[in-house]
Design brief:
The chain is an alpha/beta fold. 13% of the residues lie in helices and 29% in strands. It has eleven helices and 59 strands. The strands form eight sheets. Strands 3-4-7-28-31-34-37-40-43-46-49-52-55-58 form a 14-stranded parallel β-sheet. The chain has a 13-stranded parallel β-sheet with strand order 5-8-29-32-35-38-41-44-47-50-53-56-59, with no helix packed on it. α4 (80-91) runs antiparallel to α5.
Length: 784
């Protein structure tokens, strides 16, 4: 992550194009000045609307975006047969932006369905095509009470997935190495399967499209791969010295468990990712003993000697030594392993740091190497963890790694004595697919691990469906390479890091990956790694994220890198709850990340941030050529960000979106020609060579027109501003600003749009609100 330029004054672009400081006294914002007034004039002329639009479409002096909008307007005013011809003309116009051409394709398809007497909308349109499971040649059964020496029948099941894998390999050997016709189905019965090793499937364990290898939960049963150890009983604290370090009010209430006596040999690390154990009580993660109990405190004076200055005014140092203001740290002289978690320099990046020394007299912390990546500065937020003396609030716990004893402060009363207590132990992936093809994992639950859940490397056409991955210290699913893997209908929650990290396709050749993350629910994640651990991190080329629900995340819900991805029909809410300078969806740093389409998503209640803010969609540092179409932004934006924030990019198309009660509709951080040309210099050779030059013709003009984007057909309802820091250079057309009541469902129906006089002149296209978010499916896991 590079240091990013920020603006600290909020501006509103008024209808006349002048910049003015936004204040409560301002009138309700009006749409920005139209770049091509003839479009608005055509919309206002009901009698000659079609002809007026066609005249604009035929005007060679009009920009391609304007001509495309005019064709959409002409088709909207035409009879059905004429409209189809106009849509076809737009589809064939290679100069028109992708989003407008794609809308014309959809309109043609809908007209074709209507002509056949079919419903205009297909129920399964925009849904993943999942494999139909054939009748298997062989069925094997696995159950916790089974025996890997058994025959694998329902009456004599195997005991482990590894035992089933060996049985499948024997069947393949009998078939000459190929999977039997119809494949093999391994039925995994309900119960707990203690996990001490990774279940690995390689290329030799592959199926085919006609003969898949399926590991599937038995109907209405829940097989659980568990990486934890149960704590069956708690005892009062036995060590007098330990008890004396506890607050008098809790000494008699704290309980201990001897992990060594339970067979735990690896006590891991307090805060290192994928090594840190956690304590869960009835599935709820407990809090590693911390100070303060809630929120943060701020760093005092920075005492390091390796100093530096950012932007000529922000003072920092690279070595970790600073003062604390409060009294509590002075009592930690006998604490062996204090860790500090903080946003040490920027509010968008955090790290755990080990404390080398606490000097009570000087009231200073000296941190151990390695120091934080960006250094330290005064006034930054942090808190301490892994401090036995701070075990003073119900739900807090501490592990003494010298003795192997775990201490926990239960809630008052005796209900906790009947609770299930588990400490995570297993620190490797539970399941790993290496170069496997046509393998399906369905209905499994993976829980209580220190590391990741499932890894998929290479291979192709594997499906992870209806699985629940929870209470893990790392990421739930990691897909690296391969082609056409699908993560479908999974529930991923209570995770230390992110939901799914998916990389597929080749950014050098622009070959498609074809991976899909669909119909999943991801919530309560990034508990240990609070930034850059999103619900989905997507990289590569031509992959898709659709129909998911992402919520309750301290930073971004999606991190998108690469080209030609499709992000559609997702519901995102209550994210960017702690970090700053982020979006519900974030892209960063490469002007060649072209062809990404973000359409028909619902972004709600994204209002966090400290200095810069939080946006629904944030296109950061040179991100260009992205289409943001048909989204709903509700209560998005804060501090300096609108529902959509564009930082130094150009040629983005923000079209046909609805902004409701947002701090601002769009915000911009302009770079100017000089900085833009300097920033893109290293990308120019790739931009001018195959395959980029052919795939993205606009790259021929990459160096020109810095900061100019297209903003069309959007509806702004009760927003604090339409544009912030626009500079009067954005290309706007056919936008509407509404100050009163507005029902978003109007935009879901073409006839309702036509009846609303506030919308009739902006060529608004329907937004499929009823299709946003997860949908019912037999392979979908229950949401938490």
């Amino acid at each position: 992550m590079h240091i990013r330029y920020r603006h600290f004054v909020v501006f509103l672009l008024t209808a006349g194009g002048a910049a003015a400081v936004l204040s409560a006294a301002d009138q309700p914002p009006r749409p920005p000045t139209a770049v091509w007034p003839a479009l608005e004039d055509a919309a206002a002329d009901a009698e000659k609307r079609q002809a007026a639009y066609l005249e604009i479409a035929d005007d060679a002096a009009a920009p391609p975006q304007v001509r495309a909008l005019a064709l959409l307007g002409a088709a909207q005013a035409a009879t059905t047969s004429d409209a189809q011809a106009i849509w076809q003309r737009l589809v064939e116009d290679a100069a028109a932006p992708h989003g407008y051409r794609d809308e014309a394709r959809r309109r043609l398809a809908q007209a074709g369905r209507a002509a056949q007497g079919l419903a205009v909308g297909d129920r399964v349109e925009h849904r993943a095509e999942l494999p139909a499971l054939p009748t298997p040649a062989f069925v094997l059964h696995v159950a916790p009470h089974g025996d890997d020496a058994a025959g694998g029948t329902e009456a004599a099941p195997l005991a482990t997935l590894a035992g089933a894998r060996h049985a499948v390999r024997r069947l393949r050997a009998e078939q000459g190495g190929a999977p039997p016709a119809g494949g093999v189905r391994v039925v995994v019965h309900g119960g707990t399967y203690p996990t001490g090793d990774t279940f690995v499937l390689g290329a030799e364990d592959s199926g085919t499209a006609e003969s898949p290898i399926v590991y599937q939960a038995a109907p209405h049963q829940t097989p659980i791969l568990n990486g934890g150890v149960r704590i069956e009983s708690w005892q009062p604290v036995s060590d007098i010295a330990i008890k004396q370090r506890l607050a008098p009010s809790v000494r008699e209430r704290v309980r201990e468990a001897d992990l060594a006596a339970l067979g735990v040999r690896d006590f891991g690390d307090a805060t290192d990712l994928r090594r840190a154990p956690e304590l869960f009580i009835d599935g709820v993660p407990q809090t590693l003993a911390r100070w303060p109990d809630e929120g943060f405190v701020a760093t005092g004076g920075i005492l390091g000697t390796d100093t530096f200055t950012v932007w000529g005014s922000i003072q920092g140092c690279r070595d970790g030594k600073f003062t604390y203001v409060e009294d509590r740290p002075s009592t930690w002289g006998d604490e062996p392993d204090v860790r500090l978690y903080g946003y040490w320099f920027w509010d968008w990046y955090e790290e755990f740091q080990k404390v080398a020394a606490v000097d009570a007299g000087a009231r200073t912390f000296t941190l151990a190497k390695p120091y934080s990546q960006y250094g330290y500065r005064q006034g930054q937020r942090y808190h301490a963890v892994n401090v036995l003396r701070e075990l003073d609030r119900p739900g807090e716990w501490y592990l003494d790694r010298r003795s192997g004893r775990l201490y926990w402060l239960p809630p008052e009363g005796d209900a906790w004595t009947r609770a299930t207590a588990t400490v995570s132990v297993f620190a490797r992936p539970f399941v790993q697919l290496d170069e496997a093809e046509h393998v399906i994992l369905a209905g499994l639950t993976i829980e209580d691990g220190r590391g990741d859940g499932i890894h998929v490397r290479g291979g192709g056409h594997c499906v992870i469906a209806g699985c629940t991955l929870r209470r893990l210290g790392g990421d739930a699913v990691v897909v690296q390479g391969g082609r056409r893997h699908t993560v479908f209908g999974c529930t991923l929650h209570t995770l230390g890091c992110g939901g799914a990290r998916v990389a597929g396709g080749d950014r050098t050749t622009l070959d498609a990956g074809g991976h899909v993350v669909e119909n999943c629910t991801v919530a309560d994640i990034a508990r240990l790694k609070r930034t850059y651990a999103p619900a989905v991190h997507l990289d590569g080329c031509c992959n898709r994220i659709a129909h998911n629900r992402f919520e309750r995340i301290p930073s971004s819900a999606m991190r998108i890198e690469g080209n030609d991805h499709l992000i559609e029909l997702n519901a995102i809410q209550h994210v960017v709850q702690e970090s700053d300078d982020q979006g519900g969806l974030d892209m960063f740093g490469n002007p060649l990340y072209r062809g990404v389409v973000i359409r028909w998503n619902r972004w709600s209640d994204i209002t966090g941030g400290t200095h810069c803010g939080a946006a629904g969609v944030r296109l950061d540092d040179m991100i260009s050529g992205v289409t943001v179409h048909g989204n709903v932004f509700e209560r998005c934006g804060a501090v300096q960000f609108g529902g959509v924030q564009i930082h130094g990019g150009k040629e983005n198309v923000v079209d046909n979106n609805l902004f409701v009660d947002c701090f601002a509709g769009l915000s911009f951080s302009r770079w100017g020609e000089k900085r833009w040309r300097e920033g893109i210099a290293r990308f120019l050779p790739q931009a001018g060579a195959a395959p980029y030059a052919a795939r993205y013709p606009d790259l021929a003009r990459l160096a020109d027109g810095a900061d100019v984007n297209w903003v069309t057909r959007n509806v702004f309802v009760r927003c604090g501003a339409v544009f912030l820091r626009d500079g009067g250079i954005q290309q706007a057309a056919l936008n509407a600003s509404i100050d009163g009541q507005f029902d978003p469902r109007v935009l879901a129906d073409a006839q309702a749009i036509a009846r609303d006089r506030r919308l009739e002149a902006i060529l608004a296209a329907p937004i499929p609100l009823d299709k946003i978010g997860p949908y019912d499916h037999p392979w979908r896991a229950a949401a938490p």
